[in-house]
Q: What sequence folds into this?
């Protein structure tokens, strides 16, 4: 089993002004002359972590990590104005041009996988290859599974706790209700629902590795801001037409694509990866029998690093 490469520090970092009053934090690691790879984090709003640098051979990859609008070290943190899927895709193209990259590999998980596919559909000539984990397709059925009727049957007690933060007349429209509370004037209601949403997401994503009791009763403003950003995208259906990602797969270039999905993924069930593979039959689909949603655990780390190494061989 492959293990993460040793921790490294960026050889360059940037804070770049983009339109609409946002500033993006971007870092470059590894080999400046290596194969460019863009790491696309999930969320929306989760931001990059230092260990994300370690999936790639630093001698052979030019590793680029960027916190998307409103996320991580980008500013304003949690900013919703001028923050849509269109803006995030425009930012990616701006970064590619700013960093003087002709073609790059996209490496994304969950929401990051959705962004990778959308960018590839808009700019197919700029894609050298893609490694996509835990594919999120932003369909209504995907949102319903997560926040209406699906995984709530697996964690009914936590689902009930989440519903308890919502007035009963609004419980049938959970996404809209949480969005309203997070953007309302009642600070106590904001923090209560943000904590419950965070616990729900942590449990569904991490399974047995998550303990709700470890989530601090004192809710930091950063948790409220991240929840606002997630719900901003969810309530607007990710600023996409229904089934847009799958419908436009014919625009994805004929390049090496590796799809990796955990069989035990409860955020994005394996059906998502299978549906994507049906539209991208030349892509290689790898279902991991014991892995879940997140980019952790020996099986998932081994699969992601193997895919990154294989991409080097295919694109040498």
A:
């Amino acid at each position: 089993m492959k293990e993460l490469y040793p921790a490294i520090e960026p050889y360059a970092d940037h804070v770049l002004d983009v339109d609409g009053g946002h500033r993006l934090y971007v870092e470059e690691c590894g080999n400046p002359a290596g194969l460019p790879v863009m790491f696309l984090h999930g969320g929306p709003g989760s931001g990059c972590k230092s260990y994300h640098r370690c999936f790639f051979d630093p001698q052979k990859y030019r590793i680029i990590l960027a916190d998307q609008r409103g996320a991580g070290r980008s500013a304003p943190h949690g900013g919703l104005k001028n923050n849509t899927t269109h803006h995030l895709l425009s930012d990616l193209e701006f970064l590619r041009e700013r960093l003087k990259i002709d073609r790059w590999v996209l490496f994304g998980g969950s929401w990051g996988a959705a962004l990778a596919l959308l960018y590839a559909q808009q700019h197919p000539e700029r894609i050298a290859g893609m490694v996509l984990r835990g594919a999120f397709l932003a369909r209504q059925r995907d949102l319903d599974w997560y926040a209406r009727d699906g995984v709530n049957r697996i964690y009914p007690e936590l689902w009930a706790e989440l519903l308890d933060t919502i007035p009963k007349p609004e419980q049938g429209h959970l996404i809209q209700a949480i969005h309203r509370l997070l953007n309302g004037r009642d600070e106590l209601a904001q923090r209560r629902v943000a904590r419950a949403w965070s616990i729900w997401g942590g449990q569904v994503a991490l399974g047995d590795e998550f303990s709700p009791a470890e989530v601090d009763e004192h809710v930091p403003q950063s948790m409220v801001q991240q929840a606002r950003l997630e719900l901003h995208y969810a309530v607007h259906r990710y600023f996409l037409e229904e089934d847009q990602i799958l419908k436009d797969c014919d625009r994805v270039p004929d390049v090496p694509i590796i799809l990796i999905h955990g069989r035990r993924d409860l955020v994005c069930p394996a059906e998502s990866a299978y549906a994507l593979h049906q539209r991208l039959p030349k892509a290689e689909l790898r279902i991991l029998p014991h892995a879940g949603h997140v980019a952790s655990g020996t099986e998932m780390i081994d699969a992601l690093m193997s895919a990154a190494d294989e991409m080097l061989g295919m694109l040498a």
